[in-house]
Amino acid sequence: MTNEAIIELKNIDVTFHNKGQTVNAVKDVSLTVNRGDIYGVVGYSGAGKSTLVRVINRLQPPTAGTVVVNGQDILHLTPRKLRAARTKIGMIFQHFNLMDARTIADNVGYPLRFRLSKKNRQEKVAHLLDLVGLSEKANDYPAQLSGGQKQRVAIARALANDPEILISDEATSALDPKTTSSILELLKRLNKELGLTVVLITHEMEAVKEICNKVAVMESGEIIERGDLVSIFSQPKKPLTQDFINTATQINQALEKIYKQASALNLSDHQQLVQLQYVGASTDAPLITELYKRYDVVSNILYGNVEILQDTPLGNLIVVMSGEPDKLQDAWQYCQDAGIKITHLKPTDSEVA
Ligand SMILES: Nc1ncnc2c1ncn2[C@@H]1O[C@H](COP(=O)(O)OP(=O)(O)OP(=O)(O)O)[C@@H](O)[C@H]1O
Ligand SMILES: [Mg+2]
Predict the structure, then answer these.
(1) Dihedral, CA atoms, 244, 248, 252, 253, nearest 10 degrees?
(2) Model confidence at 208: pLDDT above 90
(3) Ligand nearest to the CA of 21
(4) Distance between CA 95 and CA 118 in Å, rounded?
(5) Which Pfam families match (predicted)?
(6) Which of 4, 229, 278, 314 is the most exposed place for a label (fewest CB within 10 A)?
(7) Confidence of residue 328 (pLDDT cuts 50, 70, 90)
């Protein structure tokens, strides 16, 4: 990773007018992606993710704002220069968009059909198929491949023109979790080996967690939060971000179960259900011992999880803490002073039901 910007979107608006209705799909979004980043853009359906990334190669002209890619002002290029610039921005999609009547090799070689001699093209295609681990499928047809293999073909095709940027728009959304992981691993390897900059659009923070170094969260056409992966995961500021993270770290799933049993937990006023989040090497066991020794507070762990993000451990615990009310306060203060984020959990009536 360097600090050299490869994509600079400034104050981008995209407004659609449809049958008398106005949709502000992207609102005043600025985004800088550095060379070598794997930048995640996460948001629910309709947040404006696809519209925003289509602005990068001007597939979607913005209503306002500026777009600089690789130092070029994309909005003021001649058609010929725009075509050239676009070849350096590869794209992959959820539905692969392969040509069913052509072989795998022909699909991959398609973007090169006017550019290279037959021999050079065959060599290039063989190299690309090798890169994505599909050499033996060269003469097969898309219908003979699994979803994961099809996406590998799409990736090989997207790399045919040696792009510097790869935009992945929900490329793993149609795949099962294991296949998703293998595709994400491939993107990560291409990022490392080829220096490829990746913009990864997804509605799953899980995917972001696996390979991204940076992430932006979109809601209603705006980027509501952004930053490097570890700080977003350890210090999310917006509830939506926290929600995405809680799903990716299985906390929401655990909470659902815990809330269902909340009445069984039968908490007294000397007990509190809390979530503890901590970053770095500090582990749960010494903390819990410390809270007991110092404040007579007993912590009963209901759920625990440690994620390794970019080599940094990020821990999550859901515990019932029991103790004298003022001692509980002291214990929480102690946690906070130790850099541990505390969230007091309270099952709402609907969640208990
Ligand atoms: N060509 C278009 N004409 C009119 N409205 C559009 C057009 N393209 C997108 N929109 C609207 O813009 C908003 C953002 O759409 P967009 O496809 O960018 O969302 P998204 O975050 O990619 O969603 P998803 O996760 O479902 O792919 C939506 O309200 C959508 O209906
Ligand atoms: Mg989309």
Answers:
(1) 150
(2) yes
(3) 1
(4) 29
(5) ABC_tran, NIL
(6) 4
(7) very high
Percent of the chain with pLDDT over 70: 95
Which ligand sits closest to the CA of 49?
1
Q: Is the CB of 23 under 6 A from ligand 1?
A: yes
Atom 12 in ligand 1: residue holding the nearest Cα:
25
Minimum-distance ligand to the CA of 44? 1
Domain 249-352: which topology?
Alpha-Beta Plaits (3.30.70)
Per residue in 286-301, pLDDT tens?
888 999 999 999 999 9
Top mutation candidate among 22, 29, 51 for ligand 1, by most atoms within 8 Å of CB: 51
- CATH 3.30.70.260 residue window(s) in the chain: 249-352
| pLDDT tens-digit series, residues 142-193 | 999 999 999 999 999 999 999 999 999 999 999 999 999 999 999 999 999 9
Gap from CA of 136 to ligand 1 centroid (Å) = 38
Q: What is the mean pLDDT of the chain?
A: 92
Contact yes or no for 192/160 (Cβ under 8 A):
no
Question: Could you confirm whether domain 5-237 is CATH 2.30.42.10?
Answer: no
In one-letter notation, the amino acid at residue 214 is: K
Answer for the pair 314, 251: CB distance below 8 angstroms, yes or no.
no
What tokens does 247 get?
């799903």
| Token pair in block for residue 197 | 């900059």
Candidate of 16, 60, 93 to mutate for ligand 1, largest count of ligand atoms within 8 Å of Cβ: 16
Tens digit of each residue's pLDDT (9 = 90 or more) over 250-284:
888 888 888 887 666 778 889 999 999 888 766 56
For residue 296, give the amino acid letter.
D
